[in-house]
Amino acid sequence: VARSTDEDGNEVISQCGLNEALARVAAVTGKATDNITQQQVNELCSVLRFGMASAGDDGNTYMGPVPGAYSDATFAKLMEEATKYIGYPYVWGGSSPSTSFDCSGFVCWSYTHSGVYNLPRTTAQGIYNQCAKISKADAKPGDLVFFTRTYVSSEPVTHIGIYVGENQMLHCGNPIKYASIETDYWSSHFYAMGRLPIGSGE
Description:
Keywords: Hydrolase, Protease, Thiol protease
Radius of gyration: 17 Å
Strand content: 15-25%
GO molecular function, one term: cysteine-type peptidase activity
Number of helices: 7
Strand order of the largest sheet: 5-10-6-7-8-9
């Protein structure tokens, strides 16, 4: 694990790298590892840090079928609210326009106050726990993108953004802004995509 800076210049503990993960797997299994993906690296890192439970029990308690994606009209309602706060600074623990936001506070406020989905204040991990897990290929605007180990935490999920399509998210970096999830930084910290159950917006 190494210290680095994120795209906003903040110091972070970086995700363990490909070579480190491969070396650890080879040491444990005695086998060479080829053609491993970055997502598999991230899953390995979660297991190495949080134990085997994280491979199958990472806190997610959603048991229903995968909901349908939000309609264009519902996504537009969500973005009408969320884009009001572009440029607001990141404030740890912030959860409203009067305090500004942190990443989960921004998401909870945007979904709830747009009328799309009632999402009481919780952490990025708490939001992830309520979502149906979906693949990147199946992600649609209005879904959520989750990241891991963007700071030191006892939980796998540490950052969240609203997926807006075309590999872009709107998230509370510093400040709130759009960002590509395919940059070296965000792709190396990618954890999962998720979809909230259909709320009042549908």
